[in-house]
Amino acid sequence: MAETGSTGMNTTAIESVAPAISAENTRFIILISCVATIGGFLFGFDSGVINGTVDGLRQAFQSSSAGVGFEVASMLLGCAIGAFFAGRLADLWGRRTVLIISAVLFLLSSLGAGAAHSSLFFIAARVLGGFAVGAASVMSPAYIAEVAPARYRGRLATVQQIAIIGGLFAAFLSNYLLAKTAGASTEALWAGQQAWRWMFWMMAIPSLLFLVLLLIIPESPRYLVVKKQKVRALAVLTQLYGAAEAQAKLGEIDASLSADHHRPKLSDLINKATGKVRPIVWIGMGLATFQQLVGINVVFYYGAVLWQAVGFSESDALLINVLSGALSIGACLVTVMLIDRIGRKPLLWFGSIGMAITLALVTGAFASASLDANGKLVLSDSMGVLALVAANVYVIFFNMSWGPVMWVMLGEMFPNQIRGSGLAVAGAAQWTSNFLITVTFPVLLASIGLAGAYGIYTVAAAISVFFVLHYVYETKGRELEQMEG
């Protein structure tokens, strides 16, 4: 029977996009998509929790600036590897299975990072978490794209970014409250353990929840068709769309695969006629790379360090992070309302323009700073306000555009035959860029200063405008079976 009752704002908004399909189980589709987005929440939490622990790491492990930079960025090495192998393993074992593995790794990483008493052990635990983040970052949006109808696929996939920002916000808030309760991140809290350790241990709770809930959702029907498990695929499609629609969809998915129906492989990314990498792969890698070159994760990973560098206290800096997280969630909610109405491409170029302008303002504010007797940057009151406002508006522009839209597009832009392989390569490019931006920031901060570092990110944002206009194509409203590579 049709699901006609309201399940809240999201369901109402989704069902208003087009007349309801009589047998479509909208509530179930939203439910399993939300379970998948917990991977995004953990992605955000694991990425943001490091923000409040930098002082604790420096004190516990006696790390140099370069050492702290590597400890902060070490997770990202695991992310690149995890994203690459997740795409390939998802073609072998399934989308749901890879997400289950990532949930287990999230749990182990959170416990290990908090318990670490050496830099090497800590880095190992964070790399393990990186495997989980990398896998979840590409598989959660891919799973959502493969179960959701085209008419509201963008909205559901954007919820993934809300979950990511929600995870960041939860980490920032948790860090702030734990540090405030203890007195500082380096002070002892419960069981005689320092607050920064509890910041990591808090992630064990949503990790366990993710693992349990993944056991109740079905496997992606498109993966099942690729694996020639058509009976199981038809059962899942029937559960999602109803019997009549399921049979037709099964035929469409089957017809979209390669003519010889061979198993997906990495070499599928090369066009057999030309011998060159398919253009869609370069576009995916470009989207993934530019999302990081604009420097967003410098704000997320080094936010506390950044604001302390221009005169804010640790408590105030952590509170600013909470504000940034709240603004990010609001920006993503705007994107939920717009992405299936105006499309992906307009949001991307609008966001690029906004980021370029706001980053230029932040760069100008930091360039005006002077040094005090201790060598710390000091901004005038007016420049301090400009830097704070422009940085937060920049975060809003990012989370209205490149933050959610890049992941939405990666999950849907590749044809069925190469989706796993395409995600593997693009995901690895995204996390490799993330690692390079993150690990170089402390070096840039020490050599060319905040103004120089943000000047580089400003140029990247300006270039991304032209990349979107000339190379990115629209995917709004197109079924996955219509994607061309």
Overall description:
The protein is mainly alpha-helical and 485 residues long. The protein has one domain: MFS general substrate transporter like domains (Growth Hormone, Chain: A), CATH 1.20.1250.20. It is 75% helix and 1% strand. The protein has 20 helices and two strands. It has helices spanning 9-15, 26-48, 54-61, 65-93, 95-115, 119-147, 150-182, 195-201, 204-214, 221-226, 230-241, 243-256, 279-293, 296-309, 314-342, 344-367, 381-400, 402-412, 419-447, 449-471, and strands spanning 370-371, 377-378. The protein has a two-stranded antiparallel sheet with strand order 1-2. Helix 16 packs antiparallel against helix 20 (449-471). It is globular. The two termini are 37 Å apart.
Gist?
The chain is mainly α. 75% of the residues lie in helices and 1% in strands.
Highlighted features:
485 residues, mainly alpha, Growth Hormone, Chain: A, two-stranded antiparallel sheet, 20 helices, 2 strands, 75% helix
Secondary structure: elements and pairs:
Layout: H1 9-15, H2 26-48, H3 54-61, H4 65-93, H5 95-115, H6 119-147, H7 150-182, H8 195-201, H9 204-214, H10 221-226, H11 230-241, H12 243-256, H13 279-293, H14 296-309, H15 314-342, H16 344-367, E1 370-371, E2 377-378, H17 381-400, H18 402-412, H19 419-447, H20 449-471
Antiparallel strand pairs: 1-2
Helix pairs in contact: 2-5, 2-6, 2-7, 2-9, 4-5, 4-6, 4-19, 5-6, 5-8, 5-9, 6-7, 6-18, 6-19, 7-8, 7-15, 7-18, 11-12, 13-18, 13-19, 13-20, 14-15, 15-16, 15-17, 16-17, 16-18, 16-20, 17-18, 19-20
